[in-house]
Amino acid sequence: MHLKKIKPARCETIIEVSLLIMVFLSPVGGALAFFALLVAVFFWIYKMIISKEIKLVPAPLNYPIFIFVLVGFCSIFFSTKPLTSFAAWIILLTFSLTYFLIVNNLKSRKQLERIIKALVIATTLVAVIGIIQYYTGLGVSYRLKYFSFDFLQQGYRVKSTMSNPNILAGLFVLAIPLSLSLLLGNYKKLHYASKTKTIGKDILMALSALAMILCLIFTYSRGGWIGLLGALLIFGWLKNKKFFILFLLSLLLSTVLIGGVRNRLESLTNIYFSSNIERLYGWQSALKIIKDHPFFGCGLNTFQQIYPQYMAPQAKEMLAHAHNTFLQIGAEMGLIALGIFIWIFFTLFSHLWHTFKNIPERNLNIITLGVFSGFVGFFIHSQFDVVMDYTPVGLLLWSLMGIAMVLGRFSKNSKTKK
Predict the structure, then answer these.
(1) What CA–CA distance (Å, rounded) separates 54 from 75?
(2) Can you give the pTM of this predicted structure?
């Protein structure tokens, strides 16, 4: 296919298909997902050149994200390992391009639907793999040694297609509220007239959400559980009080019936539990790194290398990260980047809240709440772990930021039908 024969409309189709492929493959094939993303970026730039419209669609997150990436680049020159930090910055840049691609190329409600459905289908498949993994032990290297189980058969901490159970938990914290929003948003009005088909679709969406929740439980990630709890409390309280009460009862029942869950939750209050105390040491070390590298940090992706120099004498584990996203950013990129990251989240929450309160269409209103709740859960989870640097979570996180901005357009021009 000769490039000169490709018109802007064809470019838009290629961009959307590439984004859908990227979203679908991101949990299972990082290299292929990045390739699809690069294809989308190439045709986006080409479309702007041939149409002679080299500009970005205005959005509240454009400036803070651009500045955040720019400060990340500046931090390379102050890094203890410049080449390592440069490679990590390239990944950060790629993640940010996901945001800009979605903001500038998703223009219709149908496009928004397709990208959200691709996200949910991909994470559902990951959940199914995780559940199979739990009961078979295939591909699992993390085994719980300290907790008893009642009716759960294997006792594995599943990781599915991820490299770590906590990363998998971070993926589900973002995706589960979105899946529930599809279920409760009554999407049947958009496409289906048959009641039978509608019921079948509702059952599939319910099974999708259930699979993700079950797989999240099997990760035994306490930070993931707390993050999802916060997300679902926000979701239920703002939209459906019955859902809120049902969830609390289900949570109570799960802690009674599932011994592993009950025992895992009890460890949260035990400061002498090994994982808890090592996190505290990690947080203390991160604060010391920030004190020594206040402006631009020690460099992206260098925490693990520099940690031994700041490791508490009592600490026994060599941590790969600070187990707190905000401390991690402060340590590796400095206080300037940390302030901008907080700016990003403040702007994101403010924008989503305004959209939720002002978007008139019921389906999009609940989708907005699902995205908002997912970010609340991610914010909570980020206090205990660092997962946004990993491809599956990073691509989902930055994609949802773009989707949040696209949803805002419908609150301003809700009568647009495309």
Answers:
(1) 28
(2) 0.89
